Amino acid sequence: MKLNKPALLLGLAVLLSSATASAVPDTMTFSGRLSTSSGPVDGSVNVIFRIFSAATGGSPVWTETRNGVGADNGLVFVELGQITPLDEVVFDDAQVFLEIQVGTETLTPRIAINSVPYAIRAGSAGSADTLGGTIGPDDVISTVTGGAGVQVATGANSATVGLSTSGCSGGEVWKYDGSAWSCEADANTTYTGAGAIAVAGTTISLSTSGCVAGEVWKYNGSAWSCETDAGTTYTGTSPINVAGSTISLATTGCVSGDVWKYNGSAWSCDPDASAAYTGASGISVSGTTIGLSTSGCAAGEVWKYNGSAWSCEPDSTYTDAQAVAAVTAQTVTHSMSYGPANFAMAKLDGTALSCGIVNNCAIPTGTTTLLRIPLGIPAPSTLTDVTCRINDNDATTNITMTIYNSSSTIDTASTTGAPGILNLSISGLTESITSGSRGPTLTVSFASTSGQPQMYIYECWATYTTTGL
Fold it and tell me: Cβ distance 48 to 8 under 8 Å?
């Protein structure tokens, strides 16, 4: 940065001459020749002026941005403080420095601002700061006068205020009579004790006047007087014993283990009843311990009620409830078989076959017959497997076995073209049968594509598990 320092001094001189006017100006004229890294500035430029309290670093105490400043070969003239006023706070430090930024480039070094701009500070004297900034003739108190009871002694620039002694004698006090203050004698109120109260100076206590050792102050209904202490004596009646300040149960007439007992009219020392408890059959009582008796019992026996009495018997008989509890948690596998007596054979249209029974029944060509077996498995249980043993003498017969419940098919198994005896099975089921449900139904359907084959169903069976009985 290049600055024309004589031009800067000229600006300061203008400010100094303004300080002789009646009001201190809050602006400062700046003139100088500014040059950036690109050379002297020219034309319209944006300039930021900042004042710091240090030559480097720190934060600005004043900032003003001036856009569109005219520059002629680096020479600029700016009246600082027109946007951001310059006041005594800006120049409150011993030394401040001006920093200039042209566009985005900050020029260095900062310029020290010397004494002339501090004329701004002269507009507010240090003492005026504490009084709001100005002192007028009416703000100055030059005479202090003491009123009644108050005296004032003034010096060159001080005043001492105290209580007046004028018209007062030794020991008197200033007293207000309701309308004015005057010097009067101190009342110095004296307190006197009456009756049982003694006052000695500032000490108040019970009086000993007219009293002898052991007496107490007693009120007789109209006045206090020193009287003999009644010393009331308390006497215990049966069964209370009083010895001095100790009250306790009496031991007179009592022997060890006795208790004080009220018989309805008086207290007396009598043996403790200590009711004795005796265990009946099956119960043992020893002191304060009650338990099952072991008398007449052998190892492993239990106390059993036979309908009229308890006796120690071998542990071998279970009630129905005990038997149920013993097996409730067990899982048991069951199997149910279904023979020809369980089969219901019919066409899909519901009409019966001419043979009347399923075994050795000729199936018309193209006709599907249906074997339906309600499995009737008890609840609660889980169906796991179903198998049917069938003899098919024709390779053209299709056989399908289906397990379904009331709402949907559970699983199916089928075979085609396998003449002879076969077991057709559905396994790996987990069908839960719950209480109130109809349970699953087994169907076996036969469809012949030619001839009239003979069908034999020997047996079907289902496997299921139950928990408990």
Answer: no
Does a structural domain hold residue 202?
no
The DSSP call for residue 26 is S
User: Are 290 and 378 within one domain?
Assistant: no
User: Does residue 413 contact residue 425 with C-beta atoms inside 8 Å?
Assistant: yes
Residue 400 has, within 13 A of its CA and on its CB side, a CA count of: 13
What DSSP assignment string belongs to 76-137? Answer: EEEEETSSS---TTTT-SS-EEEEEEETTEEPSSPEEE-SGGGHHHHTS-HHHHTTTS---G
Which of 126, 144, 159 lies at the terminal end of a domain, its last residue? 126
Distance between terminal CA atoms of the chain?
Answer: 108
Residue 452: CB atoms within 10 Å: 12
CA 446 – CA 355 distance, rounded (Å): 15
Query: Per the structure block, which two tokens stand in for 364?
Result: 């018309």
- The neighbouring-strand residues paired with 40 are 35
Total residue length of the chain: 469
Do 444 and 412 sit in the same domain of this protein?
yes
Are 339 and 446 members of one domain?
A: yes
Per-run averaged pLDDT (10 residues), the chain, 469 residues: 39 37 70 91 94 93 94 92 86 84 93 68 53 62 77 77 86 88 82 84 86 88 87 80 85 86 88 77 83 85 85 69 50 64 48 47 55 76 84 68 77 72 84 75 70 63 74
Q: Where are the alpha helices (DSSP H) in 81-158?
A: 119-122, 126-129
d(CA 60, CA 48): 12
Q: In terms of domains, do 89 and 13 share one?
A: yes
d(CA 21, CA 23) in angstroms, rounded, equals 6
Together in a domain, 302 and 420: no
Handedness of CA 324, 328, 331, 334 (dihedral sign): positive
C-alpha dihedral (334, 340, 343, 346), degrees to nearest 10 = 160
Q: Report the CATH number that the domain containing residue 115 is assigned in CATH.
A: 2.60.40
- Report CA-CA distances (Å) from 147 to 152, 168, 183, 195: 9, 15, 13, 48
Residue 237 lies in a domain: no
Query: Structural domain tally of the chain?
Result: 3
Q: Are residues 60 and 116 in the same domain?
A: yes
Q: Please say which residue of 126, 147, 177 terminates a domain.
A: 126
Task: Residue 291: give the domain boundaries.
Answer: 280-317
Q: Is 0.70 surpassed by the pTM of this model?
A: no
In a domain, 163, yes or no: no
Cis preceding linkage at 109, omega within 30: yes
